[in-house]
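A.,

Following up on our hallway conversation. Structure tokens first:
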């Protein structure tokens, strides 16, 4: 076997490391998706790159392959679940509350946009809870009326997220060091209101499981209501509830003394329930917000990429027992994705989710290095960057006040430029760890920068900055894969992706099984 001179080998390695480090300005393909930030398409080690026979030859291992690998594919059914996440304050939260609970009083704040559609229920609530005699302005701004603990006048939105489908991963070499890959998937995504509400505490501190008795004995538009701290949604296909968490509602204190004297008489639990909380379905219809459970089947984003990798052999002629033979394998992967061929996510469906990068095209780069010790394990790391391209969306709900949270009364056309994703991964793997069983474990971090949202038609009433400030998220994951070779070319695999830590992100768990073939 011909061995390169040390000087030539070092120069090649230096060039590879330099290329990888400069590519961090562009770097790797992850998803702009809080529910599925790092989708996996196969149980195989992500860094094998059709290089198994070549590695065995370099390490002078017995080669069982009749020919080099030129083509590989995986078929992988999968399931993904989440019932909660962590919000911007790093606290466990309902999936519908990650960026803030639904604030009903906040919907009355702010100015009306130009050509705003009629909202009679919100207008009546505004006049009743904030009488014009005391608050004559058309741009209502009463921070003292908003409970900073998101208890009084807020809905909590418990959701169950489920994703089921199959993914297909295809690799092919175009030369010894270069190859291409294509990834695609189909999935059914469901996000439903939970049938069970988290128990809330009464003002006496006791914990009670309230039944779904709903809003009863509404006298009139400005009447009173007998509440059990929960309101039942009504309407087609709505089989569960959004719950009012009235913990310590009676003890809510206004922080602004000057405003307290004006609103204390009207802004009590009964009035807010009657004017706003119990009229959620009516308000949603008026602002064209669909609050029914969501379920759709579609095609995930199509991804295609070009990769380069090369194995450099070290210590193959060393007689020092402390210097173990190993392969140093730098790699670079460039990928792009085309937005899903399925339906674009309807921004006015409150619980709708995207099948990929939130309907944006993307371009990403990843660079990394693996060290494959001849007789033991392989360790490696990667870092990368993903850029998402701007896209126009029609009728996207946008806040009209900094005091609004979760649900917004008006919509407009916008251009959205998602923030970039940065990721880092560290891997430990062992081929044929026990018999024909191979295993790998990987730590993965994905960080999403804040989005940029621009109005298509300037209107001072809209405050897109509120959404921008709540758009950043971060997810840390553990990826574990097991693969068992049942023949020279076929293996069966099992993959598990477990959530470790999140910020403003779903705690999604993924289980995937793979049929893998390499030729």
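Then the amino acids I'd put at each of the 519 positions:
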């Amino acid at each position: 076997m011909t061995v390169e001179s040390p000087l030539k080998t070092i120069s090649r390695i230096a060039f590879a490391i330099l290329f990888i480090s400069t590519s961090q300005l562009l770097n790797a393909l992850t998803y702009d998706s809080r529910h599925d930030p790092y989708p996996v398409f196969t149980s195989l080690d992500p860094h094998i790159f059709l290089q198994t026979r070549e590695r065995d030859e370099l390490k002078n291992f017995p080669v069982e392959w009749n020919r080099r690998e030129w083509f590989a594919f995986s078929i992988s059914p999968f399931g993904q679940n989440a019932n909660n996440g962590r919000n911007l304050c790093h606290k466990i939260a309902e999936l519908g509350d990650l960026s803030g609970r639904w604030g009903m009083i906040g919907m009355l704040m702010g100015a009306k946009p130009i050509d705003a559609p009629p909202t009679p229920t919100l207008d009546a609530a505004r006049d009743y809870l904030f009488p014009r005699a005391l608050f004559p302005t058309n741009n209502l701004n009463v921070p003292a009326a908003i409970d900073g603990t998101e208890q009084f006048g807020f809905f909590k939105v418990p959701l169950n997220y489920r994703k089921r489908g199959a993914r297909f991963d295809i690799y092919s070499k175009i030369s010894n060091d270069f190859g291409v890959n294509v990834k695609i998937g189909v999935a059914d995504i469901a996000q439903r209101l939970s049938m069970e509400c988290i128990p809330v505490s009464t003002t006496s501190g006791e914990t009670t499981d309230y039944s779904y008795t709903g809003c009863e004995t509404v006298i009139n538009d400005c009447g009173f209501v007998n509440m059990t701290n929960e309101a039942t949604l009504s309407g087609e296909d709505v089989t569960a509830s959004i719950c009012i968490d009235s913990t310590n509602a009676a003890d809510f204190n206004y922080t602004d003394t000057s405003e307290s004297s004006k609103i204390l008489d009207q802004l009590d639990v009964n009035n807010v329930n009657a004017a706003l909380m119990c009229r959620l379905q009516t308000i949603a219809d008026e602002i064209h917000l669909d609050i029914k459970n969501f379920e759709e089947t579609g095609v995930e984003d199509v991804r295609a990429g070009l990769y380069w990798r090369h194995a450099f052999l070290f210590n193959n002629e060393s007689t020092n027992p402390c210097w173990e033979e190993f392969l140093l394998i730098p790699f670079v992967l460039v990928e792009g994705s085309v937005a899903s061929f399925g339906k674009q996510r309807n921004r006015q469906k409150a619980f709708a989710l995207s099948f990929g990068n939130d309907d944006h095209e993307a371009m990403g780069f990843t660079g990394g290095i693996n060290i494959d010790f001849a007789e033991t394990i392989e360790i490696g790391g990667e870092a990368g960057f993903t850029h998402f391209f701007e896209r126009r969306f029609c009728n996207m709900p946008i806040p009209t006040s900094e005091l609004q949270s979760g649900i917004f009364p008006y919509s407009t056309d916008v251009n959205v430029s998602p923030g970039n994703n940065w990721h880092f991964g560290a891997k430990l793997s062992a081929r044929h760890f026990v018999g024909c069983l191979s295993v790998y474990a990987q730590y993965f971090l994905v960080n999403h920068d804040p989005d940029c949202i621009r109005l298509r038609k300037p209107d001072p009433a809209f405050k897109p900055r509120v959404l921008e400030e709540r758009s950043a998220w971060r997810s840390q994951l553990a990826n574990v894969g097991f693969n068992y070779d049942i023949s020279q070319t076929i293996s069966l695999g099992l993959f598990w992706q477990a959530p470790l830590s999140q910020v403003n992100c779903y705690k999604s768990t993924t289980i995937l099984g793979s049929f893998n073939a390499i030729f």
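Residues 6-518 form a domain with the Porin fold (CATH 2.40.160.40). Curious whether your intuition agrees with the design.

B.
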